[in-house]
Design brief:
Elements: E1 16-17, E2 32-35, E3 37-40, E4 50-51, E5 76-85, H1 88-97, H2 103-113, E6 130-138, E7 143-148, E8 179-187, E9 190-203, E10 206-210, E11 213-221, E12 224-231, E13 244-245, H3 250-253, E14 261-262, E15 267-270, E16 273-281, E17 286-291, E18 311-313, E19 320-322, E20 330-336, H4 341-356, E21 362-368, H5 372-381, E22 388-390, H6 397-400, E23 408-412, E24 418-421, H7 425-436
Parallel strand pairs: 20-21, 21-22
Antiparallel strand pairs: 1-12, 2-17, 3-11, 4-10, 5-6, 6-7, 8-9, 9-10, 11-12, 13-14, 15-16, 16-17, 18-19, 20-23, 23-24
C-alpha cells in the first residue's frame, strides 16, 4: 500500500531500476549474485507508507509476543503501545520457537503471510527484529504525541517526544532528518547490529511510517559494468518483495510507477540479456538474477503474459467461475483480503466502476484469502456484485499466481493477455472509460 498522486495508499513495496546496454550473443549467462550497499533516501522510487497498527495485545495470537516497556510519560493519557516488525519471517519464527505463538497459529500465519523460512537462515535465538512505538495524548501540551524506541532498549525515558507532521499531498515523500533506528539482523550465520532511517507522519488521525533506504549494486558483463539501484522495501527492510522495473518507464515521469514493477520471477532485460528477478537474499546480502532463457521458467503475472485460466466456485452462489467463459471480455481480477486495509479502501471505488461498465464487455472477479466466515461478515456490510472465489488449500490460487502481497490486481484483454497489473481504481476507470463505460 502506498501514497501516490493525491491519495494515500499503503503498501509493502520494494523495487529495482536497471540500465540496459548490449551484450555479445555468444556469451553463456550464469546466475548473478550481486552484493548490495544500502543508502539513505527514496532514489527514483515511489515509496510506500504503512500504518503503525493499534496494539493487538488482546489477540490470542499476538498477546504473548509483546515485551514490557518502560518510560511512558506520566503526563500522557490514552497511551497505546505498538511494534513494527522489521522481518516477518524472523519475528514469527522466533516467537514460535520460544512458545509465544502456538503451532496452530504458526501454521496459520505461514499460510496467510506466505512465511516459509529456511530455518538455517533465521536465528533460533530471539533478536531485535522489531521497533516499539508509543502514542498518547500529552495533557501538558494538549496534543497527541509519539515516541519511538530508537535504541531498542524497551525504555522510552531516553527518547525524544515527536510531533509528527501531516503528509503534504503535493509532496508526500518530503521529510526532515529521519530517526535512526537500532535493530539486529541475522546475516551469514551471525547476529549483527544494524541501523535504519525511519520517518513517521500523520494522515488524518492515522500514524504512518516508512524507512527511506534503498541500495545499489553492480552487474559486470565482460568489460562493462551496469549500475543497479534497488529499493530497500520502504515499509520493511527485509527485501521480502524485491521488485524490478523496466528503465524505459522512467523516461517521462522520472519515477517508477506500480504498473511497471517487475515482480519476483518476472523477466527484465539488462545488457542485451534477459534475467529473472529472484530477489534479494538478506542472509548473504546479495541480489540474485537468474538467466531467463533456455529453460522452463516459473509463471508470473507480468504484463504481456497470458493469464493462466482457472475454475472455482463463487462464494455466494456456488456457481462455477470459469475464466474460459469470459473469453472475448476484458476481465479485472482483484486479489484481496478483508485484512488488507488498502484493499478495503478500494472497494467503494471499484463498486462505482462496476456499476457503470458494460458487463457484456467487462467482467470483475475477486480472489480472496479470507475464510468463508470473514468474507460473509464483510459482504453483509459491503455487498459486492461480482463473483468472489476463496483461495484455499484445494485450489491454491494465490500460490498458483505467485501472489505475495496485497493488493494485487490484473486487467486481462479479451484474448487473455495481461495488459495491466497492480492497477488502481482511477487507472482502471481510465483504461475502461473510452469504450466500455455506459
Amino acid at each position: 500500500m502506498k501514497i501516490l498522486k493525491n491519495s494515500v495508499w499503503i503498501l509493502l513495496s520494494s523495487v529495482l531500476l536497471v540500465h540496459a546496454c548490449t551484450q555479445p550473443q555468444n556469451q553463456i549467462e550464469t546466475t548473478a549474485f550481486l552484493p548490495i550497499q544500502l543508502k539513505e533516501g527514496y532514489g527514483p522510487f515511489h515509496p510506500g507508507f504503512s500504518f503503525v497498527r493499534n496494539s493487538t495485545k488482546d489477540s490470542p495470537v499476538w498477546c504473548k509476543t509483546y515485551l514490557s516497556v518502560n518510560g511512558i510519560p506520566k503526563s500522557w493519557s490514552r497511551t497505546s503501545v505498538s511494534y513494527v516488525i522489521l522481518n516477518n519471517n524472523q519475528f514469527v519464527y522466533q516467537n514460535f520457537i520460544v512458545g509465544n505463538i502456538n503451532l496452530t497459529d504458526y501454521q496459520g500465519l505461514q499460510k496467510d503471510w506466505h512465511l516459509f523460512p529456511d530455518t538455517n537462515r533465521v536465528s533460533k535465538k530471539p533478536i531485535r527484529c522489531y521497533i516499539y512505538v508509543i502514542r498518547g495524548f500529552d495533557e501538558k501540551s494538549g496534543k497527541w504525541v509519539v515516541k519511538v524506541d530508537t535504541n531498542n532498549n524497551l525504555d522510552f525515558s531516553d527518547e525524544a517526544t515527536i510531533h509528527p507532521k501531516t503528509i503534504d499531498p503535493k509532496d508526500p515523500y518530503q521529510y526532515d532528518k529521519p530517526l535512526r533506528i537500532q535493530y539486529e539482523i541475522y546475516q551469514k550465520g551471525v547476529v549483527q547490529p544494524a541501523e535504519l532511517p525511519m520517518v513517521v507522519k500523520m494522515y488524518g488521525s492515522e500514524l504512518l511510517y516508512n524507512f527511506p533506504q534503498y541500495a545499489t549494486t553492480t552487474l559486470k558483463k565482460g568489460n562493462k559494468e551496469y549500475q543497479l539501484t534497488l529499493a530497500s522495501g520502504f515499509t520493511t527492510p527485509d527485501f521480502e518483495k524485491t521488485r524490478l522495473v523496466d528503465p524505459s518507464s522512467l523516461f517521462f515521469s522520472g519515477k517508477i510507477e506500480d504498473k511497471d514493477l517487475i515482480e519476483i520471477d518476472d523477466v527484465v532485460a539488462i545488457g542485451g540479456s534477459k534475467y529473472r528477478n529472484k530477489g534479494v537474499d538478506v542472509f548473504n546480502n546479495w541480489l540474485e538474477l537468474e538467466p531467463a532463457d533456455g529453460k522452463k521458467q516459473p509463471y508470473s503475472l507480468q504484463v504481456g503474459n497470458s493469464f493462466q485460466p482457472f475454475a472455482g466456485r463463487d462464494f455466494l452462489t456456488g456457481r462455477t467461475v470459469d475464466l474460459g467463459n469470459y473469453r472475448g471480455k476484458y476481465v479485472y481480477i482483484d486479489f484481496w483480503g478483508t485484512g488488507c486495509k488498502g484493499c478495503v479502501q478500494d472497494m467503494p471505488a471499484l463498486v462505482n466502476i462496476y456499476r457503470k461498465v458494460d458487463t457484456d464487455k467487462v467482467a470483475f472477479i475477486g480472489i480472496t484469502l479470507d475464510s468463508p466466515k470473514r468474507l460473509k461478515t464483510f459482504m453483509v456490510k459491503s455487498p459486492l456484485r461480482w463473483p468472489q472465489v476463496i483461495s484455499n488449500d484445494t485450489n491454491q490460487l494465490f500460490e498458483r499466481y505467485h501472489v505475495t502481497g496485497l493488493p494485487t490486481s490484473v486487467l486481462i484483454s479479451p484474448n487473455g493477455t495481461i495488459i495491466a497489473r497492480n492497477i488502481r481504481p482511477d487507472e482502471l476507470r481510465d483504461a475502461l472509460s473510452s469504450q466500455l463505460i455506459n
